[in-house]
Amino acid sequence: MSKELSVTVVIATYNMPHWLEKVLWGYEHQTYRNFDIIIADDGSGEETRAVVDRFKKDSDLSITHLWHEDKGYRRQTILNKAIEAARSEYILFTDGDCIPREDFIATHVALAERGHFLSGGYCKLPMGISEGIDKDDIFSGQCFSPEWLKERDFHGRSQLRKLSASPQWGRFLDFVTPANASFNNCNTSVWKEDLLAVNGYDERMQYGGPDRELGERLENKGIRGKQIRHRAICIHLDHARGYKTKESLERNLRIRKDTRRKKLTWTDHGIAQKVPSEAGN
Question: Which of 55, 210, 240, 265 has the fewest CB atoms within 10 Å, measured from its CB?
């Protein structure tokens, strides 16, 4: 893909300002520079706004802070607003707890392909290491070093394999991995026109698979997932998930089952809250 490809990075966040600060440090240090950022904020408080305002003032990052009032878990709603607001033809989704390696955007751009979305990977860290990572660790890249992590008693074999893989070895591992090339909020890129063609996220869904369901509609539309989990890397900081409920998981499973069974390509509960006359499944 052309190195001139413009990318909008959509970072979803909710009341994790210290983690978001570390993530934005990661984007300050990207080797690929033709990108802007949308912070898709599901109702965070003033501390998050202060972090974003500081980066808008003091860094060279182009940041839009897209916020709506906190009325409970409405992440899919703010993500759909971010899709509409994206200035670029290509969108990279990630989370406010995922620090990108310096080649993160460059890898997505190099592997972008029409008719596909890219499914990246992450290395999930425990709380102690998450809290200890600072700006120097991110700018030097040492927090992505398997040796550095092992010194801090991190020994997740599959996680470290992602961090240590060369581009050639990563390509091989992505070819042989049994993991599905699924749509993941923390590390997926896709053409904006493809997202609009399936009407974005289903806003009925809360925590537990709304990104997967979007990916399933894209697949039903003929947009295939492409595995890059050993090449496009971010480190996932630890945090609690108080928004995870049995009810939301069960409802989401029913919606996903319906999407697969009916081979749906469109949701009536997405960006456009109605079915266009030409839309079919």
Answer: 240
